[in-house]
């Protein structure tokens, strides 16, 4: 587990509007604080394992990141870092409904260490003619909204992969069969497996860098976020590290 516990909510019946999903996210967080220890122990994790529930990282994929941003715009809570996976703003792929969490040209009212993993085929249209992550509504729209003076941030784009390629193979095949999102038809099942492990590895490196107190170890973790030659897939990377050293798990918030 690399010392990380992950809670991933799953539902087909949530409201369509991302803003209306925020209370459900709050419910998941509150549930984890009360129940996660017990559930891990029930499922075989040693009772000696103690979770640090006073500090945690929030992550979101696609429009899930919209919900995440709306949550953090209200308050940092106990969140001390965030992960975005091909984040998408808005309620519809054309951006016709004016429900957005980000206003281009304006910074968000919070800042915290951020790992942003994108996919090169995010903007490729599916059968509908729309992409699952339209360029004007995704990725750099989010990255650029983090104020560089209060948020260290790392942007890594896996150029050969698509929006759904971090899912289990069954779901990837469903997306490709329906052409719900654009995809790279040249990829093999094995390459999808490599990509899933890459994404997980990047997140683990980020978590380790945030929470280790050993500067030397932190530097070794940071290398996997900043040096493309150490990454297992082809990437384009950029970052803005406030101090040029190891990031600290923390969150700054101010009234909008």
Automatic annotation (TrEMBL):
This is Uncharacterized protein. It comes from Scylla paramamosain (Mud crab).
